[in-house]
Design a protein that fits this description.
Blueprint: E1 5-6, H1 14-23, E2 27-31, H2 43-48, E3 53-55, H3 59-78, H4 91-98, H5 100-114
Parallel strand pairs: 1-2, 2-3
Length: about 120
């Protein structure tokens, strides 16, 4: 029907994935969410099954929600975050992960182009 990428919904086993790959010649996307019908397969396994793209659209949200639940339980019990600091990322680590200084430099270059020194 002209689709460039297709993601088949709720496939229940590897044979289903193989059949879809055999029947379709477009790019295939595996949309992996937790607690669904699809078995938990690795990115490598999806590649072996002929899938081009794998996404885990809700996994990070579920992880974040679990961490927030633990934090809020701690805050309720202890009334502060002091004894929880070993579970938190420090600013320096966050900046490294998101490459913050690159964006800070970009921001400064944009500002200089608008309002020169």
């Amino acid at each position: 029907a002209g689709a460039e990428i297709v993601f088949p919904e709720a496939l229940e086993n590897e044979k289903d994935f193989e059949r879809v790959r055999k029947d379709l010649s477009c790019y295939l996307l595996a949309n992996m969410t937790e607690f669904g019908k699809t078995p938990y397969l690795s990115a490598k396994k999806f590649e072996e099954l002929g899938f081009d793209i794998v996404i885990w659209p809700v996994t990070s949200l579920r992880c974040e929600a679990a961490a927030m639940k633990q934090l809020f339980s701690h805050l309720k019990e202890y009334g502060g975050q002091g004894a929880y600091l070993d579970k938190l990322m420090e600013r320096k680590e966050i900046y490294s992960v998101i490459d913050y200084h690159k964006y800070e430099d970009l921001d400064q270059s944009i500002a200089r182009s608008i309002v020169p020194d």
